[in-house]
Amino acid sequence: MPEGDAIRRLASTITELFAGGTVVASSPQGRFAHSAALIDGCRLQCVRVHGKHMFIGFVTEGEGQGQGQCEGEGEPILERWMHIHLGLYGWWRFNGDETVVDEGYGVAHRVPPVPAGEWNGHSETRWGCGFGEAAAGTWEPPEPVGQVRFRMYNTHAVADLIGPNRCELITDAEREAVEARLGPDPLEVGARDDEEAADCFARTAHAKKRAIGEIIMDQSIIAGVGNIYRADSLFLAGISPHRKGKNVSVKRLKELWVLICDLMNRGLAAGRLETMDPKEAPNPPLVGDEEASRWYVYHRTGRPCVRCGTPIREALMQNRRLFWCPSCQR
Fold first, then answer.
1. Residues forming CATH 1.10.8.50 domain(s) in the chain
2. Is 166 helix (H, G, I), strand (E, B) or coil?
3. What is the pLDDT of residues 232-255, one digit of tens each?
4. Is position 52 annotated as part of the catalytic site?
5. What's the confidence (pLDDT) of residue 77?
6. Is 320 assigned a catalytic role?
7. Which DSSP string corresponds to 252-288?
8. Fold of 4-180
């Protein structure tokens, strides 16, 4: 399941390719057909993210102003929000004309068209998945492939949504209700230094009798953390995932909040989910243990801890794989 930083990268791509313009919307699969018809011909105003939830805001052409802005001064309250949660199997597929450049890991941006005989300074790595190249000025969206729940396109790009856990059209009040049920998001601007957010997370977690490994995967307590950030943030904090929340001090939980903020923002900036500090990464990389250069304990069952050499353990917690070092984490 994509974690919060991956959802924000996808949101940035959708904003880059579609915000401020009208879209043609459909549901090739048919399961979202009625709602897609209500979006068809609307302007994509902005994209919001809270944790693993994405909200795409639409307005009827001619309403509001600006591009890619949400509820700023002078902006209308958007009454059409597309609420998306990818779950375990959902994903987005993008394609575009010669102006759309793929940076990898869900990130794309647009560059000016390249005049004949010139170079725009970017490698022309395109979205495509085997659809082929389109000549400049003649681009048409390719035919949908697979069970596409939702499709939107404009004159230069197309986005297909496949297999999401949730895909529904909601009102602004319903969006607010969804966000209100979620805990603070470590990737919100200023979250690391937000005493109120840190205190909310720490005191809520400290009041629980459940294992801390369960608590930080609870999206109502902290939004956006998934299996990888759970494993490695608890490792770096030296906290056993089996320790109950009530047995972790509020001070230590606030420190865990800061650590999670730092790890997730590092992953967001890097463009891929890597928690390993380059200074601690094995050099040269360990043969047969490529994960040791990316993660501290995640997906490293039975392999030696990069700090103490103790074999990493694995167990199931709420039907999700859990990884930890029994020596470094108490």
1. 191-324
2. strand
3. 999 999 999 999 999 999 999 999
4. yes
5. 75
6. yes
7. HHHHHHHHHHHHHHHHHHHTS---S-TTTS-SSPPTT
8. N-terminal domain of MutM-like DNA repair proteins (3.20.190)
Give the total residue count for the chain: 330
Q: 79: which 2 tokens?
A: 């009454």
Q: Where are the beta strands (DSSP E) in the chain?
A: 24-26, 43-50, 53-59, 80-85, 91-96, 100-104, 107-110, 148-153, 157-162, 166-170, 313-317, 320-324
Is 192 marked active-site? Answer: no
CATH entry 2.40.30.10 includes domain 191-324? no
Q: Of 166, 203, 246, 320, which is the active-site residue?
A: 320
Between the alpha carbon of residue 245 and those of residues 102, 171, 210, 237, the distances in Å are: 42, 36, 6, 14
From the candidates 9, 52, 126, 254, give the one annotated as an active-site residue.
52
Q: How far apart are CA 191 and CA 197, in angstroms?
A: 7
Which residues are CB-neighbours of 153 under 8 A, at least 6 positions away? 23, 24, 141, 159
Backbone angles phi, psi at 127, to 5 degrees: -60, 155
Give me the mean pLDDT over the 105-115 stretch: 76
Cβ atoms of 56 and 12 within 8 Å: the answer is: no
Catalytic annotation on 2? yes
